[in-house]
Amino acid sequence: MNAKWIDTSIIVGSAIFILALAVSAFFAPQWRAMHVMQALPYIVIVILTRRRSPWGFGAGVITACFWNALILFRSPVGVALVHGDVSRPDVALQLLAALGHFLIIVACLVGFWRTRPAGRQWAQFVGGGAIAVGYLLAMVWTVGPPEAAEHIKQALGF
After folding, report:
1. Domain that holds residue 142
2. What is the pTM of this model?
3. Number of domains in the chain
4. 144 in the Ramachandran plot: left (φ > 0), alpha (ψ -120 to 50) or beta?
5. Which residues contact 47 (CB under 8 A, 6 or more apart)?
């Protein structure tokens, strides 16, 4: 039912994002616990999408869109990209993570569409995304350093 490129793209995109989390955690130890917890949904996304689960496809699309929107439109990374300044390591790393997310988004959308979803599957798709985003935000506030919650609050306009 699904082309091999879909599974491969989801795995590669997730691996790229997890790699970006690992590099960030290496250089910023205060973020390690949060980044470990934030990597877990990407493992779940790979497992669920290989089973053709609407929950996994939704988690992949909605989580990746949410974080890319924050990174590209509501953070200094977006400004740096507009000015062509990707020479800063933190900007380059977040850009790499966003590229991993773009792979996930495209592959999950195509993979989900190929399942010929009906009403219930669409509800599961949205539910999977909501649960994943909720989990990631909960990790920011419970496991992350205080500045993590402040970054998210600013990005969300609170």
Report:
1. 4-156
2. 0.90
3. 1
4. beta
5. 56
